Amino acid sequence: MKILLIYPYCLESRLNDEDISVVPQGLFYIAALLKKHAYDVEILNWHNTSNRSQDIKAELINKNPDVIGFSILHANRWGGIDIARIAKQVNPQVKVVFGGIGATFLWEHFLTHFPEVDFVVIGEGEYSFLNLIQCLDQGTAYQLDHVKGLAFRKDGRVRRNSDADPICDLDQLPVPAQHFSYQHVSLTRGCAANCHFCGSPQFWGRQVRFHSVDYFVEQLSLLYQQGIRFFYVSDDTFTISTRRVIEICKKIIQTQMDVQWAAISRVDMINAEILYWMRKAGCIQISYGVESGSEKIRKLLGKTISSQQIRQAFELTQKYGIMARAFFIYGCPQESWQTIEETIELIDAIKPLSIIFYILDLYPGTALFDDYKNRNTLSDDIWLQRIEDIMYFETDPSLSKDLILEFGKKLRNRFYEKLPEFVEALDLVDDPEFYPQHSDFFSRLALTFDKGDYSGIDAIAHKDQIAEKLYRRSLTYAPNARAYLGLGMLYQQRRAFDESIQILRAGLEIFPHEEQLQLCVAISYMNVGDYHQALGLLLKLQHLKEGVYFIAQCYQALDDVTKAELYLKKYQTL
Question: Is pTM beyond 0.85 here?
Answer without folding.
Answer: yes
